[in-house]
Amino acid sequence: MSQEKEWESIWKERRSPLKKMVDLGREVYNLFFRRILKKYLNKDSEMVELGCGTATLGLSLCQDITSYTGIDISKNALLISKNNAKMQGISNAEFLIDDCTDLKIKKKFDVVWSQGLIEHFEKPIDIVKEHLKVTKKNGYSVISVPYKFSYMIIWYWITRPRLLRRFWPWTEQIFFSGKDLKKIGIEIGKPFKVKLIQPFILGVILLVIKNE
Hints:
The protein is an alpha/beta fold. 37% of the residues lie in helices and 23% in strands.
């Protein structure tokens, strides 16, 4: 199954107990991510999220920035995002179908954000380069990925048998250590920082690259 079809399938049905649990967990993650992203954002900022999914985080930041653009390959995800924006009365958000392996959008942004995206690709560095392609000069690409030494990888391996696979609500993926992200940052050749965020609660590590 292609990446596009896999994600269409994932976003099509959001009513199962497992996916409701994931949605609740996403709100917890958003509390941390908002605090992180606000360090790079201001009222004049234009932000894009690659692989935005239902865009709950991006929409929650719209009141603090000039504009938010959500990009995803899934039409189902963007339909949910648009409905969320409409219900919240948000007018400075737009949503576009695009492929993060070869972005067609020409606009550049102050902050390019993704959460749970690059780990689904065989060559994550290629997706990181796509982030930078749409980042303004002196802007930031902020990339969140699952940490190799966390509860998430335990959950992942427990659900590898076919009978348990349905308890993993995403596609196949890889997990990152600090060393893995540092290697990507060095290869990119721009100023970067690796930040470990609540490893035992969230199981998340960040790569932040300044596009100098």
